[in-house]
Amino acid sequence: MPLYQAIVLAVVQSLTEFLPISSTAHLALAPWLLGWRDPGLSFDIALHLGTVAALLAYFLRDWLQLAAQGFGSSRFNHDPELGANRRLLWMLAAATLPVGFTGYFFKSYAEQSWRSPLLMGAMLISIGILMYWADRRSQGRRDLARLSWADALWIGLAQAVAIVPGVSRSGITITAALLRDLNRPAAARFSFLLSTPALLGAAVKEALDVAAAGGIEPAMQLPFVVGIVVSAVTGWLVIAFFLRFLRRHTLRIFVYYRVAFGIMVIALALTALP
Hints:
This protein is mainly α. The chain is built from twelve helices and no strands. It has helices at residues 3-18, 23-34, 41-58, 60-70, 80-83, 88-111, 117-137, 149-161, 169-179, 184-212, 221-245, 252-272.
Protein backbone atom coordinates (compact mmCIF):
# COMPACT_ATOMS: atom_id res chain seq x y z
CA MET A 1 0.00 0.00 0.00
CA PRO A 2 1.59 3.35 -1.01
CA LEU A 3 2.17 5.74 1.89
CA TYR A 4 0.23 8.56 0.24
CA GLN A 5 -2.85 6.33 0.21
CA ALA A 6 -2.36 5.53 3.90
CA ILE A 7 -2.15 9.25 4.70
CA VAL A 8 -5.23 10.13 2.62
CA LEU A 9 -7.33 7.35 4.15
CA ALA A 10 -6.18 8.25 7.68
CA VAL A 11 -7.21 11.88 7.16
CA VAL A 12 -10.53 10.75 5.68
CA GLN A 13 -11.12 8.50 8.71
CA SER A 14 -10.44 11.29 11.20
CA LEU A 15 -12.56 13.86 9.41
CA THR A 16 -15.51 11.58 8.81
CA GLU A 17 -15.47 9.72 12.15
CA PHE A 18 -15.81 12.86 14.24
CA LEU A 19 -17.79 15.03 11.83
CA PRO A 20 -21.36 13.71 11.34
CA ILE A 21 -20.87 12.51 7.76
CA SER A 22 -20.12 8.75 8.12
CA SER A 23 -16.60 7.37 8.22
CA THR A 24 -17.71 3.89 7.10
CA ALA A 25 -19.28 5.23 3.93
CA HIS A 26 -16.28 7.40 3.06
CA LEU A 27 -13.69 4.69 3.76
CA ALA A 28 -15.68 2.13 1.77
CA LEU A 29 -16.34 4.52 -1.10
CA ALA A 30 -12.95 6.28 -1.30
CA PRO A 31 -11.06 3.29 -2.79
CA TRP A 32 -14.02 2.64 -5.11
CA LEU A 33 -14.15 6.24 -6.31
CA LEU A 34 -10.36 6.61 -6.60
CA GLY A 35 -9.71 3.18 -8.11
CA TRP A 36 -7.55 1.99 -5.20
CA ARG A 37 -7.35 -1.52 -3.85
CA ASP A 38 -9.14 -2.17 -0.53
CA PRO A 39 -6.40 -1.84 2.15
CA GLY A 40 -7.86 -4.69 4.18
CA LEU A 41 -8.57 -5.40 7.83
CA SER A 42 -5.09 -4.67 9.20
CA PHE A 43 -5.24 -1.06 8.02
CA ASP A 44 -8.76 -0.69 9.47
CA ILE A 45 -7.20 -1.56 12.85
CA ALA A 46 -4.62 1.20 12.44
CA LEU A 47 -7.33 3.74 11.71
CA HIS A 48 -9.43 2.60 14.67
CA LEU A 49 -6.41 2.70 16.98
CA GLY A 50 -5.57 6.22 15.84
CA THR A 51 -9.17 7.32 16.32
CA VAL A 52 -9.31 5.86 19.84
CA ALA A 53 -5.97 7.50 20.67
CA ALA A 54 -7.37 10.89 19.60
CA LEU A 55 -10.46 10.41 21.76
CA LEU A 56 -8.51 9.30 24.81
CA ALA A 57 -5.99 12.12 24.46
CA TYR A 58 -8.65 14.79 24.07
CA PHE A 59 -11.03 13.52 26.74
CA LEU A 60 -8.48 12.09 29.19
CA ARG A 61 -9.39 14.52 31.97
CA ASP A 62 -13.08 13.83 31.42
CA TRP A 63 -12.55 10.07 31.67
CA LEU A 64 -10.45 10.43 34.82
CA GLN A 65 -13.19 12.52 36.44
CA LEU A 66 -15.97 10.18 35.28
CA ALA A 67 -14.15 7.10 36.56
CA ALA A 68 -13.33 8.70 39.90
CA GLN A 69 -16.79 10.06 40.60
CA GLY A 70 -18.39 6.85 39.34
CA PHE A 71 -16.68 5.05 42.20
CA GLY A 72 -17.42 7.75 44.75
CA SER A 73 -14.19 9.77 44.63
CA SER A 74 -13.88 13.53 44.21
CA ARG A 75 -10.41 13.37 42.62
CA PHE A 76 -9.79 14.77 39.12
CA ASN A 77 -12.88 16.98 39.43
CA HIS A 78 -12.09 19.56 36.73
CA ASP A 79 -15.53 20.16 35.19
CA PRO A 80 -18.61 21.22 37.20
CA GLU A 81 -20.95 20.06 34.42
CA LEU A 82 -19.66 16.49 34.69
CA GLY A 83 -19.44 16.72 38.47
CA ALA A 84 -23.12 17.60 38.73
CA ASN A 85 -24.08 14.21 37.25
CA ARG A 86 -22.19 11.54 39.16
CA ARG A 87 -23.95 8.70 37.32
CA LEU A 88 -22.45 9.55 33.93
CA LEU A 89 -19.91 6.72 33.94
CA TRP A 90 -22.63 4.14 34.46
CA MET A 91 -24.91 5.84 31.95
CA LEU A 92 -22.15 5.54 29.35
CA ALA A 93 -21.63 1.88 30.25
CA ALA A 94 -25.35 1.10 29.88
CA ALA A 95 -25.61 3.10 26.65
CA THR A 96 -22.73 1.08 25.14
CA LEU A 97 -24.59 -2.25 25.46
CA PRO A 98 -26.87 -1.87 22.39
CA VAL A 99 -23.98 -1.36 19.96
CA GLY A 100 -22.25 -4.41 21.41
CA PHE A 101 -25.39 -6.44 20.68
CA THR A 102 -25.77 -5.23 17.10
CA GLY A 103 -22.04 -5.58 16.45
CA TYR A 104 -22.09 -9.21 17.60
CA PHE A 105 -25.12 -10.23 15.54
CA PHE A 106 -24.88 -8.00 12.46
CA LYS A 107 -21.15 -7.34 11.94
CA SER A 108 -20.93 -9.71 8.94
CA TYR A 109 -23.81 -7.92 7.20
CA ALA A 110 -22.23 -4.51 7.88
CA GLU A 111 -18.93 -5.64 6.38
CA GLN A 112 -20.39 -7.38 3.33
CA SER A 113 -23.93 -7.10 1.96
CA TRP A 114 -24.69 -3.71 3.55
CA ARG A 115 -21.63 -2.08 1.95
CA SER A 116 -23.67 -1.24 -1.10
CA PRO A 117 -23.17 2.23 -2.59
CA LEU A 118 -26.93 2.50 -3.05
CA LEU A 119 -27.61 1.74 0.62
CA MET A 120 -24.84 4.07 1.80
CA GLY A 121 -26.08 6.87 -0.41
CA ALA A 122 -29.63 6.42 0.88
CA MET A 123 -28.42 6.48 4.50
CA LEU A 124 -26.33 9.59 3.91
CA ILE A 125 -29.40 11.42 2.63
CA SER A 126 -32.02 10.10 5.05
CA ILE A 127 -29.97 10.57 8.22
CA GLY A 128 -28.96 14.01 6.95
CA ILE A 129 -32.63 14.98 6.68
CA LEU A 130 -33.30 13.58 10.17
CA MET A 131 -30.33 15.54 11.51
CA TYR A 132 -31.70 18.73 9.96
CA TRP A 133 -35.10 18.18 11.56
CA ALA A 134 -33.59 17.44 14.98
CA ASP A 135 -31.31 20.47 14.80
CA ARG A 136 -34.26 22.73 13.94
CA ARG A 137 -36.58 21.18 16.54
CA SER A 138 -34.24 21.09 19.54
CA GLN A 139 -34.37 23.95 22.02
CA GLY A 140 -31.01 22.88 23.54
CA ARG A 141 -32.12 23.57 27.08
CA ARG A 142 -30.09 20.86 28.83
CA ASP A 143 -26.45 19.88 29.26
CA LEU A 144 -24.71 16.77 30.65
CA ALA A 145 -25.46 17.83 34.23
CA ARG A 146 -29.15 17.12 33.49
CA LEU A 147 -28.71 14.01 31.33
CA SER A 148 -31.07 11.23 32.46
CA TRP A 149 -30.96 7.44 32.16
CA ALA A 150 -33.66 7.63 29.50
CA ASP A 151 -31.53 10.10 27.51
CA ALA A 152 -28.45 7.89 27.74
CA LEU A 153 -30.29 4.73 26.68
CA TRP A 154 -32.00 6.54 23.80
CA ILE A 155 -28.63 7.77 22.51
CA GLY A 156 -27.14 4.31 23.04
CA LEU A 157 -29.88 2.74 20.93
CA ALA A 158 -29.17 5.32 18.25
CA GLN A 159 -25.48 4.38 18.27
CA ALA A 160 -26.46 0.78 17.56
CA VAL A 161 -28.03 1.92 14.26
CA ALA A 162 -24.63 3.30 13.19
CA ILE A 163 -23.53 -0.23 12.28
CA VAL A 164 -25.35 0.40 8.98
CA PRO A 165 -22.83 2.01 6.58
CA GLY A 166 -23.68 5.60 5.77
CA VAL A 167 -25.49 6.35 9.03
CA SER A 168 -22.54 7.94 10.94
CA ARG A 169 -21.96 7.20 14.61
CA SER A 170 -21.52 10.84 15.56
CA GLY A 171 -24.34 11.92 13.26
CA ILE A 172 -26.99 9.58 14.67
CA THR A 173 -25.97 9.97 18.33
CA ILE A 174 -25.84 13.77 18.13
CA THR A 175 -29.23 13.71 16.40
CA ALA A 176 -30.66 11.49 19.15
CA ALA A 177 -29.24 13.79 21.83
CA LEU A 178 -30.74 16.85 20.15
CA LEU A 179 -34.11 15.12 20.08
CA ARG A 180 -33.76 14.75 23.87
CA ASP A 181 -33.21 18.54 24.03
CA LEU A 182 -29.48 18.55 24.83
CA ASN A 183 -27.57 21.54 23.53
CA ARG A 184 -25.21 20.96 20.62
CA PRO A 185 -21.86 20.98 22.50
CA ALA A 186 -23.24 18.60 25.15
CA ALA A 187 -24.69 16.33 22.47
CA ALA A 188 -21.34 16.12 20.66
CA ARG A 189 -19.39 15.63 23.89
CA PHE A 190 -21.59 12.74 25.02
CA SER A 191 -21.42 11.29 21.50
CA PHE A 192 -17.62 11.27 21.56
CA LEU A 193 -17.44 9.83 25.08
CA LEU A 194 -19.93 7.12 24.12
CA SER A 195 -18.01 6.21 20.97
CA THR A 196 -14.75 5.57 22.86
CA PRO A 197 -15.54 2.11 24.34
CA ALA A 198 -17.27 0.99 21.13
CA LEU A 199 -14.31 1.96 18.93
CA LEU A 200 -11.82 0.50 21.41
CA GLY A 201 -13.76 -2.77 21.46
CA ALA A 202 -13.87 -2.87 17.65
CA ALA A 203 -10.11 -2.27 17.43
CA VAL A 204 -9.36 -5.05 19.95
CA LYS A 205 -11.66 -7.50 18.13
CA GLU A 206 -10.06 -6.70 14.77
CA ALA A 207 -6.57 -6.99 16.24
CA LEU A 208 -7.39 -10.47 17.58
CA ASP A 209 -8.74 -11.47 14.15
CA VAL A 210 -5.56 -10.29 12.42
CA ALA A 211 -3.34 -12.01 15.00
CA ALA A 212 -5.25 -15.25 14.49
CA ALA A 213 -4.71 -14.90 10.73
CA GLY A 214 -0.93 -14.56 11.12
CA GLY A 215 -0.42 -10.89 11.97
CA ILE A 216 0.31 -7.82 9.87
CA GLU A 217 2.04 -8.43 6.57
CA PRO A 218 5.55 -6.91 6.36
CA ALA A 219 4.53 -4.67 3.46
CA MET A 220 1.73 -3.19 5.59
CA GLN A 221 3.78 -2.44 8.72
CA LEU A 222 4.88 1.09 7.73
CA PRO A 223 1.42 2.10 6.40
CA PHE A 224 0.00 0.68 9.66
CA VAL A 225 2.16 2.98 11.80
CA VAL A 226 1.54 5.97 9.52
CA GLY A 227 -2.21 5.31 9.67
CA ILE A 228 -2.22 5.33 13.47
CA VAL A 229 -0.17 8.53 13.78
CA VAL A 230 -1.97 10.53 11.08
CA SER A 231 -5.47 9.52 12.20
CA ALA A 232 -4.62 10.27 15.86
CA VAL A 233 -3.20 13.74 15.21
CA THR A 234 -5.84 14.71 12.67
CA GLY A 235 -8.58 13.28 14.87
CA TRP A 236 -7.54 15.38 17.87
CA LEU A 237 -7.64 18.53 15.74
CA VAL A 238 -11.04 17.65 14.28
CA ILE A 239 -12.55 17.03 17.73
CA ALA A 240 -11.28 20.39 18.97
CA PHE A 241 -12.60 22.16 15.87
CA PHE A 242 -16.02 20.50 15.93
CA LEU A 243 -16.74 21.16 19.60
CA ARG A 244 -15.76 24.81 19.15
CA PHE A 245 -17.81 25.05 15.93
CA LEU A 246 -20.97 23.81 17.64
CA ARG A 247 -20.87 26.56 20.25
CA ARG A 248 -21.88 29.09 17.57
CA HIS A 249 -23.17 27.17 14.57
CA THR A 250 -25.86 24.68 13.56
CA LEU A 251 -25.35 21.34 11.81
CA ARG A 252 -26.76 22.66 8.54
CA ILE A 253 -23.49 22.58 6.57
CA PHE A 254 -23.05 18.87 7.38
CA VAL A 255 -26.64 18.18 6.32
CA TYR A 256 -26.01 19.83 2.95
CA TYR A 257 -22.80 17.83 2.50
CA ARG A 258 -24.49 14.52 3.38
CA VAL A 259 -27.35 15.06 0.97
CA ALA A 260 -25.09 16.21 -1.89
CA PHE A 261 -22.61 13.37 -1.35
CA GLY A 262 -25.42 10.82 -1.04
CA ILE A 263 -26.98 11.95 -4.33
CA MET A 264 -23.57 11.74 -6.03
CA VAL A 265 -22.95 8.21 -4.69
CA ILE A 266 -26.35 6.96 -5.82
CA ALA A 267 -25.91 8.53 -9.26
CA LEU A 268 -22.47 6.95 -9.70
CA ALA A 269 -23.74 3.60 -8.47
CA LEU A 270 -26.68 3.62 -10.89
CA THR A 271 -24.48 4.55 -13.86
CA ALA A 272 -22.06 1.76 -12.92
CA LEU A 273 -24.81 -0.88 -12.85
CA PRO A 274 -24.92 -3.19 -15.88
